[in-house]
Specification:
The protein contains seven helices and three strands, in the order βααβααααβα. By secondary structure, it is mainly alpha-helical. The chain has a single domain, classed as 3-Layer(aba) Sandwich (Rossmann fold), CATH 3.40.50.
């Protein structure tokens, strides 16, 4: 099972190429994809997304928010910010969901490298691009 970030899911849907897109395709094909809650929110918030695609998003398992999630996420973000690293709120919530469920994340967003370095978030090999 892998968690999918918005950046890689959008790349997959747009027909882009890359190891992250390949990982998304395989995870969907083998029913091994899960969405952090923030990713589901981001994907559904695009007004141009068709109803069938929205249905696909909502059929995927969503990572449950565990007890203490919000406190751990706040402390995680504080740790990164204290070290001068970029830690967007949505990225922090995605990273914490992956940590809580011990799942690797597939993403194109290079900002997650800070979560790898300082918090042990695991990325699907070769998934960050920018």
């Amino acid at each position: 099972m892998i968690a999918i970030d918005t950046s890689s899911f959008v790349a997959y849907l747009s027909g882009a190429a890359g190891p992250d897109v390949d990982a998304v395709g395989l995870a969907l094909e083998h029913a091994q994809a899960a969405l952090p809650p923030v990713v589901l929110t981001e994907l559904l918030s695009d007004p141009k997304v068709s109803e069938p695609v929205k249905g696909l998003f909502m059929q995927l398992p969503m990572l449950e928010v565990a007890d203490g999630f919000w406190q751990r996420a706040g402390l995680l973000r504080a740790r990164l910010l204290a070290r001068g690293r970029r830690a967007r709120l949505a990225d922090t919530l995605i990273a914490q969901a992956c940590l809580d469920h011990d799942l690797p994340l597939v993403t194109r967003d290079s900002d997650f490298r800070h979560f790898v370095e300082l918090a042990g978030v695991r990325l699907v090999v070769g998934s960050t691009r920018r």
